[in-house]
Amino acid sequence: MSADLPDYYFRVRENGAFVFRVDTENRNRRIEMDQIAVVNIRNGEIKPHGQRQLSEQDLAEIKYWMEARAATLAARDIDDIHRAIDHLNLTAHWANSRATDAQLEEVTDALLMAMHDLRNVLVRKKADRLMKERGGE
Fold it and tell me: Is the pLDDT of residue 13 over 70?
C-alpha cells in the first residue's frame, strides 16, 4: 500500500458520503479511519459526526469533494444519455433486422409508450428554450 495516503476518505453512499479522517501516525502503524461527518450532495448539508467540531480544513476538503462529486455525477448522467441514444439505434437495427414477431410483440407497446413520453418531454423542453431565447417568458 502506498505511504502517501489521503488525509480524508469519503465512503460514497446514494445521496453523498460518510467522511473519515485517515490517521497513519499512530503507534501501531495501522491505518485508522475516524468518521467525522456525513454529507448530503442533494441539499449540500454537512453534519458533523457525534459531538465533533469540524475544522476549517475539514470543511474545505469536504466542500471540495462535494463539488468534484457533483461534477462526476453530472458527467455520468450525460454519458448515460449518450449510451441511451446508442441503445435506441441498436434497438432500431435489431427490430429491423433480427427480431422475431414474438420478440417484437413482447416489446413494441412498452417501447412506443416510452418513446412517446420522451418525445413529448423533449418537444415541450425545446419549445420552452425557444421561448426563453426569444424573450417570450
Answer: yes
Report the amino acid identity of residue 17. Answer: A
In 3D, which of 8, 61, 52, 53 has the Cα closest to residue 33? 8
Q: What is the pLDDT of residue 3?
A: 61
Contact present, 19 and 37 (Cβ < 8 Å):
yes
Q: Would you state the pLDDT for residue 4?
A: 78
| Beta carbons of 62 and 37 less than 8 angstroms apart | yes
Mean pLDDT of the chain: 93
User: Per-residue DSSP letters for 8-24?
Assistant: EEEEEETTEEEEEEEE-
Please name the amino acid found at residue 133: E
Which grid cell sits at 74?
453530472
CA distance 43 to 60: 17
How far, in Å, CA of 109 to CA of 125, rounded? 24
The reported pTM is: 0.75
The predicted structure's pLDDT at residue 1: 47
Q: What distance in Å separates the CA atoms of residue 71 and residue 66, rounded to the nearest whole number?
A: 9
Where do runs of H (alpha helix) occur along 22-100? 56-97
